[in-house]
Amino acid sequence: xxxxxxxxxxxxxxxxxxxxxxxxxxxxxxxxxxxxxxxxxxxxxxxxxxxxxxxxxxxxxxxxxxxxxxxxxxxxxxxxxxxxxxxxxxxxxxxxxxxxxxxxxx
Length: 106
Description:
By secondary structure, this protein is an alpha+beta fold. The protein has one domain (about 10-100). Helix content is about 20%, strand content about 35%. The chain is built from 2 helices and 8 strands; from the N terminus they run βββββββαβα. The chain has helices at about 75-85, 100-105; strands spanning about 10-15, 20-25, 30, 35-40, 40-45, 55-60, 65-70, 95. The longest helix has 13 residues, at about 75-85. The N and C termini lie far apart (about 30 Å). This is DUF4176 domain-containing protein. InterPro entries: DUF4176 (IPR025233).
């Protein structure tokens, strides 16, 4: 679907949800059942925002389509470049999928 890192504030529709999700984080490192790994994005319901429990974790392949792109300043462009260069550091961590995360239980 998308081969670039999306900006914070980008609003997407995910395949498995019937609501809009705004990206609020990139490459969150998470732990479940003693296994540490990451997703590409974290997001909250748009326009509601984050209320403490409703955090969605997802990857590029979970995005059905993009509704609106977030603000992109010169600093954001610089950061995106640095993130692309440093993505190799994540290779030591497991990349979770939504299905795998759900199957791991509580």
